[in-house]
């Protein structure tokens, strides 16, 4: 674990993407899964201007953009078996599939929901057979909607109807969905109702499928799997709380809660510039350790180690972003980290890297008239910048 922590602490900026003509917040990042023995080739980013941008994984050179979206994008995911296939969920009630080898702006497949569906989360399972998307609450309804994802490549522009829905396990917006990394039938969902539900979708109905319900006591902002054989589930909340559960203990007398931190900002102190928010987490298989990623409004990124005895700061990444970091993607193969933020920048961090590209950008945020009049906290925010 110490070796891994040293590697994380030695991360430096290796590459920085060029700013596009229309700067936008970078909300979600995914890297293509390596095809055969190759390393991953592509990075896909969903942006606040309703577009998906695709970059070369090593150089961060811009490759193409998909912008034909009538609604707000929520997430981007590559297929596991084909590194040129990327999916996105949209508030217009669809999940779209894009083939980045094609010059067309048209989705190769559209997975349509029901008329009232507004999708705010989604994922595709590890066998690329199933897609699941979560909806906003409309009147009294919130849905987990499932589709058969097979036949993507030979079914140009076909629209697929849902296989079915789960509609009884959450009673508010379903903010996150995450399939199990190796078990294609297991999926976990998180909601603003505070519940984190684990389902076995091989079961015949929703009641039987619901294996576990964990309560975070707050609105869920991020969920993931961790631990040996990925038998643990963790979540972060919109008020910067953290919960961690061991699903393997469900049938035992042992408590399933491994750790519950009401406010991570109080538990972890940053250097110079305190921790303001959480972005997400990642389980490191080699080290058998869970890490969290947080940040400060100055753009600093914090790497936090997670144990049953509490949280500890592993390292701080400074000098990269100039505004809030909204997204990240960790590549365990080469210990590299991609981060995207409200400064419209995509950064690639590698152990002991030396940056040979552009200088740090200033924030793209435009101060409001209220900020101009009041100018609260300006000095304290700048103190942590390099």
Automatic annotation (TrEMBL):
Keyword Chaperone: no
Top-level taxon in the UniProt lineage: Eukaryota
Key words, A-Z: Repeat, WD repeat
Chain positions of WD repeats: 66-101, 167-209, 318-350
Record carries keyword Repeat: yes
Residues in coiled coil: none
Entry-linked PANTHER family: WD REPEAT-CONTAINING PROTEIN 89
Annotated protein name in UniProt: WD repeat-containing protein 89
Organism this protein belongs to: Steatornis caripensis (Oilbird)
Name of the gene: Wdr89
């Amino acid at each position: 674990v110490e070796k891994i922590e040293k590697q994380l602490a030695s991360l430096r900026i290796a590459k920085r993407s060029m700013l596009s003509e229309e700067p936008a917040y970078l909300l979600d990042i995914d890297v293509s899964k390596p095809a055969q023995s190759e390393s991953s080739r592509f990075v896909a980013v969903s942006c606040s201007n309703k577009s998906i941008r695709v970059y070369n994984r090593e150089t961060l050179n811009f490759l193409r953009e998909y912008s034909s979206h009538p609604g707000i994008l929520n997430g981007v995911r590559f297929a596991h078996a084909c590194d040129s296939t990327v999916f996105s969920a949209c508030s217009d009630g669809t999940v779209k599939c894009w083939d980045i080898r094609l010059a067309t702006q048209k989705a190769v497949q559209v997975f349509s929901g029901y008329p009232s569906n507004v999708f705010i989360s989604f994922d595709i399972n590890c066998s690329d057979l199933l897609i699941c998307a979560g909806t906003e609450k409309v009147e009294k309804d919130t849905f987990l909607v499932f589709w058969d994802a097979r036949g993507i490549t030979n079914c140009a522009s076909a629209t697929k109807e849902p296989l079915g829905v789960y509609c009884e396990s959450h009673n508010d917006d379903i903010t996150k969905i995450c399939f199990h990394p190796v078990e294609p039938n297991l999926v976990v969902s998180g909601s603003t109702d505070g519940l984190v539900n684990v389902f076995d979708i091989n079961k015949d109905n929703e009641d039987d499928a619901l294996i576990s319900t964990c309560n975070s006591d707050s609105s869920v902002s991020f969920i993931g799997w961790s631990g040996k054989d990925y038998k643990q589930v963790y979540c972060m909340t919109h008020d910067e709380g953290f919960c961690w559960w061991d699903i393997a203990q469900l049938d035992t007398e042992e408590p399933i809660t491994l750790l519950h931190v009401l406010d991570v900002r109080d538990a972890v102190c940053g250097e110079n510039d305190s921790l303001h928010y959480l972005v997400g987490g990642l389980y490191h298989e080699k080290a058998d350790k869970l890490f969290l990623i947080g940040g400060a409004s100055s753009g600093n990124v914090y790497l936090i180690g997670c144990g049953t005895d509490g949280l500890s700061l592993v390292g701080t990444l400074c000098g990269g972003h100039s505004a809030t970091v909204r997204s990240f993607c960790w590549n365990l193969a080469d210990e590299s980290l991609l981060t995207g933020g409200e400064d419209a920048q995509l950064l690639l961090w590698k152990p002991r890297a030396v940056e040979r590209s552009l200088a740090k950008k200033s924030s793209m945020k435009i101060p409001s008239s209220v900020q101009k009049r009041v100018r609260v906290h300006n000095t304290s925010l700048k103190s942590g910048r390099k």
